[in-house]
Write a structure and sequence with these properties.
The protein is 23% helix and 46% strand. It has 148 residues and is of the alpha+beta class. It has one domain: Nucleoside Triphosphate Pyrophosphohydrolase (Alpha-Beta Complex). Strands 1, 2, 3, 4, 5, 6 and 7 form a seven-stranded mixed sheet that branches. It holds the Pfam family NUDIX. Residues 10-142 form the Nudix hydrolase domain. One of its GO terms (molecular function) is bis(5'-nucleosyl)-tetraphosphatase (asymmetrical) activity. One of its GO terms (biological process) is ATP biosynthetic process.
Length: 148
Amino acid sequence: MTSRSRLPIEDVVSAGGIPWRMNERGEIEIAICGRRGEKLWVLPKGTPDDGEPLEATALREVREETGLDVRLGEPIGSIEYWFTANGTRYHKRVHHWLMEPIGGDVANHDHEFDEVRWVTIPEALELLTYEGERNLVREAARRLGVDV
């Protein structure tokens, strides 16, 4: 392959979170986002607006995608991966924080997902589509004192 036939590479960044709560049975639950047609379950995340700090992006994206108002907690980790779109190869890093809900409701999520639901950590580990996100949930469980 010659250098002229290689795709251009662009670095991109996103930010999101793992909203969590304690349910009435004393179990930790997290909010995850799904698309039925794609059979996709993911953590909420998105791209910063121009000049927007990553922490603000994470709060905004979680609010938009889940319908929850959240408080930013500690950083939980990052995922990085590659994908190709529109003739460009992208190297993406997604930064995540633990987040505690302070209001809102998952019923008020935006149109990007068909469903947002609260699930226990073992359920999340079964449902989440991507291993990198499952690893973040395992780390969140460790920090929250949940055995998985």
